[in-house]
Amino acid sequence: MLIGWEAERTWPNHRRLMVHSSSVWYRGIIFFSGIVVTSGCGAEAPEQDSESSESAIQVEKPNGVVELAYKHYGNPDRARASYATPKIKGCSATMIGPHILMTAAHCSGKTGTTATFRTYSASNVTSAVSEEFKCQYLLHTFKDTDLILHYCENNAEGQAPGLKYGYLDFDPKKVSIGDQVYSIWWNSITGVAGDASDNIPSSPLYSQGKVTSTTFPGWFTPILPHVPGKKGKSPIGISTSVWTMGGGSGSSQIDSGNHRIRIGPTSTGPSDAPGRNALSIRDYLDYGFVQDIDSKDPDLVGDTPPVNVAKVKALGLTPSSYVGFVDKNGDDLFDVQTDVEKKEGELNRTMFYLGFESQRRNALWEPSSKATYHPFQSKVVIKNSGSSHPTTVLEHRRLHLTPGKFYRVSVMTRTTKANASSTLRVQTETPTGAPVSFGPIVPLKADGEWKMNTFHLQASKTSTTVLKVDVEAADVDLAAVTLIEDTSTLDFEDYDQREPWRNSNDGSRALIVPRGEVSGEEPSFAARVWRDSSKPKVNGDWSLRSRQLALVPQAKYSICFRAKRDNVEPMQNGLLGAVQVIDLDGAGTLAT
Question: Most CB atoms within 10 A, among 25, 272, 293, 413?
């Protein structure tokens, strides 16, 4: 159903939307989708070695050994990782950006291939919804190491796979024995736990484990000191206790704490047993090496040259630039991915979430010497307290906003050093430097508290808009920069719209699952709201929160959303739950 709620008052500067399911009214679970923030709400309801060919796992094994991934949809971070993990040519892969897919080189040949994404609209395999994207490889490091990067095209609706299903960032820290990891990977299963007769086709799976060795001498490990092309087995491979089978080739292993990729594509392992071997992401960034443009290795499927010259040229890049180390500038990103994304820019969409926790997003900004990224703290630190005039500390020249449209913009600030003249201002320009619109001049006070600043800005009438952040006489941390096209619908159907939502009860990621309006043809993502019995029944249980709706001060809004129940418990008093808008600067609850 469609629920409309309209605020009859103006809004102070710092606010958040809270959604709450209370047992006073309803003890079940609610899904929210299709959130609209606009001037009015409509009344209508919407609507051995691991090989690259897989054999079936004999039986599903519970407790995180090897289970169907949808059984972990109750964990927001694991669910998020599962959406970003497609199947490719009998192997598993991971999206690491809007178009860039990472897998094992021993999985993929030189011809075009297909990445298959799968979600589940219910807790059974028959509810699977799949979508395929066409991909072509860009480069590989075989046989020195075992990495291949693909470029996956937009679908027929113009959506990039990584913006629809999400992507994962790297954790480039050194791996140690005992580190806890998990993997989302694809394989078929003869039967579910306790029933060996189901014959489940290739599906996303979940397995967890820990690092057991950091000295495995695999064929995929380069010789050290590194000599390009020289075969060797330097003992730097990572072994884990994570379960594997043939379809697990190419799958990443993800840090259980921060949910970033810690270990690169799986290269070898036993058959239907625990134990995987691969290079860490740290070692791929340090030692991954593309031999040259034209050489061929007959051991690689398809006899594939190290660089796909035609595709790299088609993307407007120079193929010879990617011969040699994959991260020449040492920024902990693959050079070809950064260059592709700088060339393409941030693709047009309803909402741009530009939080600084993602290294690949950060690479698209142009920081001044005053700015330092801290991705694991989700912020950029600005040191400009010595200035006596406004200084451009950050600039984004790659935003493909809708030409001429107005956007609600929000940025969080925490000031650590300031004086009476300290300010922040955000503005938009054309690519040639002509001003388009200015946000308000925001005074900065060194109280060490996070504050939300929201305002309207207009996009350039050209295809690209430049966003500039100026700071005067202050040391300030910035976080969670967000732009939302005014009057647009936020429906959770792309990564940026899902990413900022949180569970206010404990600060964890909100649970957003493909359980919205089920059509059987497209995934429909919705935010799940549930009752936490450890919290007060009224005004104390908020399992869904957003601070990034960018509600602008002194404006009037209507907030509309669709909701459905996920179980059969009867409603009490005809109510499902509650929604509040809260001012965090002291005014308290504005409306419920």
Answer: 413
Gyration radius from the chain CA atoms: 25
For a pLDDT cut of 90, what percent of the chain falls above it?
A: 67
Q: Which two tokens stand for residue 111?
A: 């011809």
- Cβ atoms < 10 Å from Cβ of 542: 25
Task: For residues 323 and 494, give the distance between their C-alpha atoms in angstroms, rounded to a whole number.
Answer: 34
Structure tokens at 336: 């070809």
CA 425 to chain CA centroid, Å, is: 28
Residue 204 tokens, joined: 């996303």
Question: Residues of 243-271 as b/e, b for ≥16 C-beta within 10 angstroms?
Answer: bbbbbbbbbbbbbbeebbbbbbbbbbbee
Assigned token pair, 188: 């078929």
Query: What's the predicted TM-score (pTM) here?
Result: 0.91
Compute CA distances 66 → 182, 205, 213, 360, whole Å: 10, 6, 21, 31
C-alpha 332: how far from its chain's center? 17
Structure tokens that stand for 96 in this block: 């690491």
Q: What is the pLDDT of residues 203-255, one digit of tens each?
A: 999 999 999 999 999 999 998 887 766 666 799 999 999 999 999 999 999 99
Residue 93: closest CA among 243, 210, 248, 258: 248
What's the CA gap between 49 and 74, in Å, rounded? Answer: 33
pLDDT under 70: residue ranges of the chain: 1-54, 109-111, 192-197, 228-232, 294-303, 520, 566-576, 584-592
pLDDT digits 0-9 by tens, 441-453: 999 999 999 999 9
Instruction: Count Cα atoms within 13 angstroms, Cβ side, for 485.
Output: 17
Supply 193's token pair: 């736990």
**Sequence-ordered list of residues with C-beta below 8 angstroms from that of 40, at least 6 positions apart, any chain:** 6, 558
